[in-house]
Amino acid sequence: MRIRRRPAAPSLRLLPAALALVLGPAFAAPPAPLSMDTDQAFDSASVAPFAGAYPDVYARLEQRREQDLAHLQRWLRQPSVSAQNRGIGEMAELLRSDLQALGFRDTAVVPTAGHPGVYGYYDAGAEHTLIVYMMYDVQPVEPSGWKVDAFAGELVDEPGLGRVLMARGATNQKGPQRAFLNALDAIVRARGKPPLNLIVLAEGEEELGSPHYPQIVARYEQRLRRADGVFFPMSTQDRDGQASMFLGVKGILYMELEAKGNPVSGGPQRSEVHGSLAAKLDSPSWRLVQALATLTTPDGEIAVPGYRDAIRKPSAEEQRLFNGLVLGRKADEAKQLAAVGAARWKNGRRLRDAAAAEVFDTTLNIDGLVAGYTGEGVKTILPHRALAKVDSRLVPDQTPEQALALIRKHLDANGFNDIEVRRLSGYPPAQTSIEAPLSRAVLSVYRKYGQTPPVAPRIGGSAPYYVFTQTLGLPMLAGGLGHGAGAHAPNEYTVIDPAPGSKVAGLVETEKFYVDLLYAFAQALQQPQR
Amino acid sequence: MRIRRRPAAPSLRLLPAALALVLGPAFAAPPAPLSMDTDQAFDSASVAPFAGAYPDVYARLEQRREQDLAHLQRWLRQPSVSAQNRGIGEMAELLRSDLQALGFRDTAVVPTAGHPGVYGYYDAGAEHTLIVYMMYDVQPVEPSGWKVDAFAGELVDEPGLGRVLMARGATNQKGPQRAFLNALDAIVRARGKPPLNLIVLAEGEEELGSPHYPQIVARYEQRLRRADGVFFPMSTQDRDGQASMFLGVKGILYMELEAKGNPVSGGPQRSEVHGSLAAKLDSPSWRLVQALATLTTPDGEIAVPGYRDAIRKPSAEEQRLFNGLVLGRKADEAKQLAAVGAARWKNGRRLRDAAAAEVFDTTLNIDGLVAGYTGEGVKTILPHRALAKVDSRLVPDQTPEQALALIRKHLDANGFNDIEVRRLSGYPPAQTSIEAPLSRAVLSVYRKYGQTPPVAPRIGGSAPYYVFTQTLGLPMLAGGLGHGAGAHAPNEYTVIDPAPGSKVAGLVETEKFYVDLLYAFAQALQQPQR
To answer: Domain named Peptidase M20 dimerisation: which ranges (chains A, B) (predicted)?
Structure first.
């Protein structure tokens, strides 16, 4: 793939430390492991568009557009709120029976210690196999403020967008997933079978952090290992029609740090007490505050010794991808800040350094704090416990175990062995190369549809894709055309018929992308890797 | 009054600093201003019992016990929850009309910017005047768990206690206050008038922190200034029948410290954002934690420079009172710790030092902490604001203004000028001398009823009694026999007929105490102060 050089720009990371001090926090240096050594930049425009065309399959999609839309609506009208255990069993069976109807030979609802998974194997007699990851659960309807019944599957005309399907799950993730199955249906109707064997492996707990997905994977592990890649149907176009790609996700360590009254460091153990007793009793709240304060510097930079030691230097591929990514983002820095409601990047870093941290650096974030009285006005108590919810995003080669051990060690070294640290969740990061056949296939299909997607080597968010990349050793990618929004908010939607002039793909074009992708991946697997 | 010497005990405060370090936090030294220089101890047994007796008045109380109990029930059946504005107007009028019926010449419901006050003036044609402070509001019924309707005014047999009146306000504070008025009623019925003029000055916002009581005082300030003291009817006997006295209260400064996303120190300003953005955005939660951490040492001792500078050394009287108080408490240290659910005093201090802090030292207490997600399980957000509710108890000569200024200055000096500090409430401490005629009168009446109450120069709690001691320049005391509990909890009660063998005063004996007190105070005002 073509590499372009990014324009030379003086890097403040190269300034003498003294000058950086003079400049102050307006230009804070990034943490040490993020130093990079190439200016080469990846450009997705250099990739040749996929040349395949399947007019007989496309024709089926055009003919069946109403039936296919009705499939999406049928899925959206079945509530499946994992957090509230609402409609979960029904949705799992609906997905399984749809797979059966589509010609999947083996299908099963897969019991777990939590909500069940769904398995389906489509035997196309092909040499290669694609695993399709799906999630059949959705967020709760809350927060309220919906224009329509969140489970009515209604079509709504939205100015500037076109005709959208507005329902919980419309874009996250039922819409894209059923669109993918519509594409498969059209292939089967037109050509008898898809060019690859398919394994659908779905879970009903994605919105809960996928606690039991490893159990589902374990059940089929031998068969899954023989597959060639994992794909997650996802609408990636923004409102303006720009699609994007990402090749990796961060891992996470999610902890609760709790200080409680105890025999060693004191404080009330049974219940809150009157606030005046602070004169003679120890305070778990102050203990928590003091313990937390040792974890960062006054300006919020991680202060746990060795916390970044496991972070490997960005690879040459990652650097090229990142350089390409930042080139595309320079123009709209103000817009990016406005989108998150902030006036500056962390500690005044430049856009490039902030973006580098998002891709390559770990974090230590307070998600929540709670102790004692949190209502309006005056109430004087000395709380007997104080809790912080803290997460850390992990990049290669960090692991949740090692990160947790470093935090524990640091707290102990500072005399805070009375602070309980509970791991609520944890998994490592996941990564796929841009050189993998799956990546090349997805990108070439984007190119066919006129897209030059920015390709992030990694997003700042976390997902347990390590089960694919690490447990199964497979490339894993999410992608697709289409635009939706409101995933965890009211009025979630996915565009069905875009407004005139829009660059957003409608339902049929989104389905065509998935048709092409199956053929493109089958072709890419035939070619030698570059 | 007789002074006794407390037994000599080696004071760890006198140990060399190096040895204290070796001993470590198991015996932390008290803050510097608390050093004392006398071993003399006040003994309330040295005070002569009040010699007065009013059998004609007592007889009325015995005769009218059912009607008088019915008065308490009538008050308790009228809800008056200030926090919920429930029954406030009705209770204010009920109190006013009761005062009128009792012979108060002038009565008024007093409008304020909040709930109204109630004023009543009883002109006995006497030389001296006693102000009776009352609060007619009660706490909400919550938390639930009541055995009876909280506003039914029911009599309940409680094993070990006897027959109790169980209702919200039974002991805090309607029961004792109406018992006081029953005592006045008996005096008027038997003797035509009380030995003192009386001013009842009540508020309906005590449970809200008395925000508008100064307005009520201001309205009658000239008349109030000419009074001789202020009395607050209060059942002070514990379950075993031991009464207690206190001569002062701490002041308070109640603050909210808030960190919010802002243009200078960054962070999301509009709403929480995704937790993964911690890689590139500043965190108001970390700012708050770091700012709070500068206010104390790692083990929770106040670290604000100069914060104790305004604290005056305990006076000789305060020291004698304190020494007497501690003598009486030595035996049951384990019980005291158990009562608050703690295994040790603050930083391992000895009982005496912990008790000294409760009486003489200021505090800095976290009442509440809140930021972001505080529910169960995993949710990853970067909150755009974080809030701490902090109170500081103030002792002479601290003021809320000075304390707040020191905290602000310290935050600014440490670079935390982005932390907003809001004062929600603040008032100075209040103090009455044991030598005041009111104190001598109350103590002598306790002695008449066989009590040798421990006398605290000050309690650890706060009340805005400065309006009496400072604004009006009057002695102020709370006191009385009787036992009740559950003031801010379910099943609040006051004992009406104690169980056989109990040392707790029943309703009639409690009323006799108030009869005696009025005469004792009138007498004490005739005697020269010692």
So the answer is: 272-414
Q: Does residue A327 lie in a domain region?
A: no
- Per cent of chain B over pLDDT 90 is 87
Give the per-residue pLDDT at B87: 98
Tell whether B391 is within 8 A of chain A (Cβ): yes
The residue count for chain A = 530
Q: Compute the count of residue pairs across chains A and B with CB atoms less than 8 Å apart.
A: 298
Domain range enclosing B468: 68-77+123-192+217-249+429-526
Do A132 and A207 sit in the same domain of this protein? yes
User: Cα(first)–Cα(last) distance of chain A, in Å?
Assistant: 9
Please provide the average confidence, as pLDDT, over all residues in chain A: 92
**Residues A458 and A501 reside in one and the same domain:** yes
CA gap A484, A495 in Å, rounded: 6
Predicted confidence at residue B37, as pLDDT, reads: 87
CB contact under 8 A, A424 and B378: yes
Provide CB contacts within 8 A for B111, sequence distance 6+.
none
| End-to-end Cα spacing for chain B | 10
CATH code, domain with B269: 3.30.70.360
CA distances from B14 to B20, B130, B302, B457 (A): 9, 45, 21, 24
Partners of residue A424 in chain B, C-beta under 8 Å: 377-378
State the CB neighbour count (10 A cutoff) for residue A145: 9
Are B397 and B281 within one domain?
yes
The ipTM estimated for the assembled molecules is 0.90
- Specify the CATH number for the domain of residue A219: 3.40.630.10
Please tell me whether residues B244 and B305 are part of one structural domain. Answer: no
> Domain end: B402, B427, B452, which one?
B427
Contact A372 B368 (CB under 8 A): yes
SS3 A230: strand
Task: Judge whether B190 is closer than 8 Å to chain A, CB to CB.
Answer: no
Residue A30 lies in a domain: no
Q: How confident is the model at residue A215 (pLDDT cuts 50, 70, 90)?
A: very high
Tell how strand A129-135 and strand A197-203 pair up.
parallel
- The answer to whether the Cβ–Cβ distance between B380 and A254 falls below 8 Å is yes
Q: What is the pTM of this model?
A: 0.89
User: Which member of A208, A250, A342 has the closest CB to residue B281?
Assistant: A342
CB contact under 8 A, A298 and B292: no
Give the HSE-up count for residue B376: Cα atoms under 13 Å, Cβ half-sphere. Answer: 2
Looking at the fold, whether A113 and A193 belong to one and the same domain comes out as yes
Indicate whether A274 and A414 sit together in one domain: yes
Examine the domain organization and report whether B415 and B270 are in the same domain. Answer: yes
Assess if residue A7 is contained within a domain.
Answer: no
Residues contacting B411, CB < 8 A, separation 6+: B291, B294, B417, B419, B421
Asked if the Cβ–Cβ distance from A279 to B460 is below 8 Å, we say yes
Domain closes at, from A394, A412, A427: A427
Note whether B135 and B153 are same-domain residues: yes
CB neighbour list of residue A240: distance below 8 Å, 6 or more residues apart = A503
Question: How many Cα neighbours within 13 Å face the side chain of B368?
Answer: 19
**CB contact residues (below 8 A), chain B span 248-307, against chain A:** 250, 252, 254, 261-263, 265-271, 273-283, 285-290, 292-293, 296-300
Instruction: Give CA separation, A489 vs A84, A170, A463, B269, in Å.
Output: 16, 12, 20, 19
Q: Is residue B59 situated within a structural domain?
A: no
Q: Distance between CA atoms of A90 and A86, rounded to whole angstroms?
A: 9
| Residue from the list A281, A355, A374 with its beta carbon closest to the beta carbon of B370 | A374
Tell me the mean pLDDT in the region A74-85.
96
Residue of A267, A416, A460 lying closest to B276 (CB–CB): A460
Residue of B nearest to A361 (CA): B279
Q: Which residue of B has its CA nearest to A425?
A: B378
Residues of B in contact with A308 (CB under 8 A): none
Q: From CA B121, how far away is CA A302, in angstroms rounded? A: 66
